[in-house]
Design a protein that fits this description.
The complex is a heterodimer.
Chain A: E1 8-13, H1 19-32, H2 37-58, E2 66-73, E3 77-84, H3 98-103, H4 111-118, E4 121-126, E5 132-139
Antiparallel strand pairs in A: 1-2, 2-3, 3-5, 4-5
Helix pairs in contact in A: 1-2, 2-4
Chain B: E1 4-11, E2 14-23, H1 28-40, E3 45-49, E4 53-56, H2 58-73, E5 77-81, H3 85-93, E6 102-103, H4 106-111
Parallel strand pairs in B: 2-3, 2-4, 3-5, 5-6
Antiparallel strand pairs in B: 1-2
Classes of the chains: A alpha+beta, B alpha/beta.
């Protein structure tokens, strides 16, 4: 994939059964873009988190919906858009307190946190005509994995 | 081959849980079901061996997070061992190394329960 090419688009049913397919497609796209295998794995996990968020929260687990994945290579970064027509999140958490979540026996609430840890830029945008989009970007160069203690 | 297989075996008074494959929102029920059954049965000294995991999404870590205090309340703990590659990296960047004791090998993790 080159930076001057049209974006690669994939339409996928918004179901958990498709998460492994999305993981593998993302991983391969990232490797084709020049990311090393471990970075490609991280990008694939982050995209899976966005897709899971759409399935469980935007579409509330209802069947019959779809997600459009769009890979937009740029010279400095790989941008991945996960477009859907479900509900937009009301509030994105600023951070997580794992100790509190564990004491409350919570099993969720980690997905957005993990996306932010693995990617350089994570936002959710509301587009025209009722569409919404998770936008994830991973820089091609630079250090990754900020100190987990910097956000709590 | 299934996306996830979860084996369990006993080592002294500890149960070693060995998931093989990947854990995401689709497969987590299998993993969570094994952990739930152990804790409900009072088998609260648990070691999760990550040697055969290709990746773990937040759903998998959430399953541990949701049960670890239950295990501790019962006098046990959930400890993890043999994490590698992306799984180990995600474990650290999520901050799970501050929530959950980790060990290089399964044997070390099992031995760590000697003094509880």
């Amino acid at each position: 994939m080159g930076s001057d090419r049209a974006p690669l688009e994939i339409d996928v049913p918004a179901t958990c059964e498709c998460l492994s397919l999305v993981h593998e497609a993302t991983r391969r796209a990232a490797i084709a873009e020049g990311f090393d295998p471990s970075a490609a794995d991280e990008i694939a996990v982050a995209v899976g988190e966005a897709m899971t968020n759409v399935i469980e929260h935007a579409y509330r687990g209802e069947p019959g919906h779809a997600v459009r994945l769009r890979f937009r290579p740029a010279p400095e970064a790989l941008r991945i858009e996960i477009e859907h027509r479900g509900a937009a999140p009301e509030n994105l958490p600023a951070g997580v307190d794992l100790g509190r979540l564990a004491r409350e026996r919570r099993r969720g609430g980690l997905g957005v946190h993990l996306m932010r840890r693995l990617m350089d830029h994570v936002v959710h945008e509301e587009l025209a005509a009722g569409a919404c989009c998770w936008v994830l970007e991973r820089n091609r160069a630079g250090s990754r994995s900020p100190d987990p203690g910097s956000e709590s | 081959m299934p996306d996830l297989q979860v084996a369990t075996r006993r080592a002294a008074e500890v149960v070693v849980v060995e998931p093989q494959g990947f854990i995401n929102a689709h497969t987590v029920a299998e993993f969570e079901g094994v952990l739930n059954a152990l804790v409900e049965a009072g088998d609260v000294r648990i070691v999760i061996s990550g040697a055969h995991l290709s990746y773990v999404a937040s759903a998998g870590f959430g399953a541990i997070m949701g049960l670890i205090e239950e295990a501790r309340a019962g006098g046990g703990d959930i400890r993890v061992a043999a994490l590698t590659g992306t799984v180990a990296h995600i474990f650290r960047v999520l901050g799970f190394d501050r929530l959950c004791r980790t060990f290089e090998t399964e044997e070390e993790a099992v031995r760590s329960f000697g003094g509880h």
